[in-house]
Amino acid sequence: MSARGLDVRKLTLVVSVRAGQERRVRRDLLDALYPYDRSIRIDVIDGLIVVYSSLEHEMLVKLLQEFPIRGILRVRQVLLYAEGDSPEQAVVNLMERAAERGYKLAKLEVRSRGAPRKTLETLAVEKAKELGLFSREGIKSRILVLGNSSILCKT
Q: How many angstroms separate the first and last alpha carbons of the chain?
């Protein structure tokens, strides 16, 4: 919470880790980042670690380079986040938010934990085409679907 009582944290990073090391990596991330952001929150969701922070992505990456943590496979920057009543609705909501914010996508991958990936990927690509999100100059992106939430990450 900030001085005004508003929550200034936002979903900033998604961290992939080696199987079985989620708790240790979460603890190590808290040890490394807490001195710089006392409002940080780190959750483990379906084997992925999600980091909510008031710090910007670049600052978090710089801190993680200064304090290397064993077990981290990949750190992805979160661009957008959306929820829905179902995984499909979450993907549609995410694509609509991306269009509202003016994002352009060069490539779109979908990864899902639990929901059928091919169905979600087809839905995401169709919606992105409908909204005119694809562009050669766009960003390479990945949608992570976790339950009824979807996260657009930079690859």
A: 30
Q: What is the CA radius of gyration of the chain?
A: 16
pTM: 0.88
pLDDT averaged per 10 residues in sequence order, the chain, 155 residues: 52 94 96 95 92 94 93 95 95 97 96 90 97 95 94 94
User: Which CATH number is 26's domain given?
Assistant: 3.30.70
Question: Domain limits at 64?
Answer: 10-70
Q: What is the DSSP code (8-state) at residue 8?
A: -
Whether 2 is in a domain gets the answer no
Helix (H) or strand (E) holding 95: helix 87-101
Q: How far is CA 132 from the centre of its chain?
A: 22
**List of long-range contacts for 115-123, beta carbons under 8 Å, 24+ apart:** 115/87, 115/88, 115/145, 119/88, 120/87, 120/88, 120/91, 120/145, 123/88, 123/91, 123/92
d(CA 107, CA 13): 20
Residue 88 lies in a domain: yes
Contact 67, 14 (CB under 8 A): no
Which of 49, 70, 91 terminates a domain? The answer is 70
